[in-house]
Amino acid sequence: MGPFEPLVVLGIDPGSLVTGYGVVRAVGLEVAVIACGAVRPRPGRVAERLVELYERVRGLIAEFAPDEVAVEEPFTRVNARSAFVLGKAQAAAVLAAAHAGLPVFEYTPAAVKQAVTSYGRSDKAQVQEMVRLQLGLAAAPQPPDAADALAVALCHVAGRRTRALVSAHRARGAPGPRATTGR
User: Fold this and answer.
1) Least CB-packed of 4, 43, 55, 132 within 10 Å?
2) DSSP characters over the chain
3) 104-107 and 68-72 as β-strands: parallel, antiparallel, unpaired?
4) 7-158 has which fold?
5) What is the signed CA dihedral for 75, 67, 5, 113, rounded to 10 degrees?
6) Strands 7-13 and 30-39
């Protein structure tokens, strides 16, 4: 798949209680929202919530037929216990995509923020606003977890385009950038 062929990406922002999802379709340089929202497993034991999260992500994959899945990695500076629980939610989402035979790409929170806002330490409000602007939406996606998931999908689309363009450039045997001495 080339950098400008149609591509449907399912972005996932895993959480222990709320997991955001965002589905985008990229065609050329245009990116449009297909759907976004949040999965809120019923209260219960962690194992039961993870099974429900897995099943709901499988349902999203069946409904929207994404070509690729992009998942945000847990933010580990909160505390070890929170990171461990978030890692379990991430694993459930990754497993659902892998069982569907889809390629999965993982991004750090800083990489997502950098790709969407050009600043790796942006706050949630800045991310929401840039997602709104980039996707031409009248209002920021709600809940915030959905905006975060759309940001993950946007990060993947941008990174994919860049990687494909660099590969095409190299395949043509074009020389790389030249260093200048400033003289």
Assistant:
1) 43
2) --TTS-EEEEEEE--SS-EEEEEEEEETTEEEEEEEEEE-PPSS-HHHHHHHHHHHHHHHHHHH--SEEEEEPP-TTS-HHHHHHHHHHHHHHHHHHHHTT--EEEE-HHHHHHHHHS-TT--HHHHHHHHHHHHT-SS--SSHHHHHHHHHHHHHHHHHHHHHHHHHHHHTT---PPP----
3) parallel
4) Nucleotidyltransferase; domain 5 (3.30.420)
5) -10
6) unpaired
Token pair listed for 34: 């297909």
Q: How far apart are alpha carbons 37 and 23 in whole angstroms?
A: 9
Residues 6+ apart with CB under 8 A from 47: none
113 neighbors 129 (Cβ within 8 angstroms): no
pLDDT (tens, 9 = 90+) of the chain, 183 residues, equals 665 689 999 999 998 889 999 999 999 889 999 999 999 998 889 899 999 999 999 999 999 999 999 999 987 666 777 778 888 999 999 999 999 999 999 999 999 999 999 887 888 889 999 999 999 999 999 999 999 999 999 999 998 877 777 777 788 876 665 554 554
Give the whole-angstrom CA distance, residue 132 versus residue 126. 10
